[in-house]
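Long-time lurker. I teach an intro course on protein structure, and each term I like to show students one example going from raw sequence to a predicted 3D structure in token notation. This year I'd like something fresh instead of my usual example. Would anyone be willing to generate the tokens for the chain below so I can use it in lecture? Attribution to the forum is fine with me.
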Amino acid sequence: MARWTVDTPMTHTLDGIVALKVRIVGGQVNIIPTDDPVTFEISDIEGEPLEVVQEAGILTIHYRDLTGQGLLDRLKPLQLTGYKNVHARRATVNLRLPRECPVEVTTATAPVVAAGLSSRLKVRTANGEITLDGVTGETDVNTADGSTSVRDPGGTLGFNSASGRLAVAGGRLSELRAKTVSGHVMVDTDLAASARVRVNTVSGEVALRVPAECSANVEMRTMTGGVDSDFGLDRTSATARTTLNGKIGVGVDPASITVNTVSGRSALLRRAPEAPAAIPEGA
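-- Reply from a regular --
Happy to contribute to a lecture. Here you go:
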């Protein structure tokens, strides 16, 4: 095992890293792929020093007194006693690692940027912005009210938020799971054969755009919100419930699209042939 206490800027290159865990408060986390050995660079350190541990192929970057998965829970105002200058803690963490390296990142306010990863990626933040580009593995995002922007994803994408916004443009997904209270979900992407899309919001808007030739079984339900579609779906209305359902396209192995809202508006939009994917403006 190797261990460093980092209170001044530091750059180090390591061999044999098979997984990464980062847990910081404020600052910035940037992750990009490389075919070279893993390199971490830590700068702009304010407040307490960071601890870096390399053990059994796992690289962990965190604060010694804020370890474990309960970091964000312990940052609640009533639980800050004993954590020195927690709100003043900031650091910029830049990492270059193999595309297939599994990654877990937890922050309070620090934005997270990750590109080109093809393995499992888990990001958890209170209100830091999340930007993902070309992630093609199993991606899970949990945020309270931070915005998440995703470009050209592949594989699976899970999103869970209170009021944070999800915006997706491009890529091809085999599964999308999005759950939010008041955050908006704006997605324009291709769907793989037999893909599964599940979106649930309370008051958040949902705009899902798919290619004109997309084949899918669709069910969109709302209690009091508006629901619309560019495709020919059957509409059923009853007291405190409106439903659009039906099949779009004629291909085999259709995708499955389910959207549920309470009061939020939702729309299934058609992307014209040859038109580039772009984040929908709203329902």
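Some talking points for your students: The first strand starts at residue 2 and ends at 6. Residues 1-117 form one domain.
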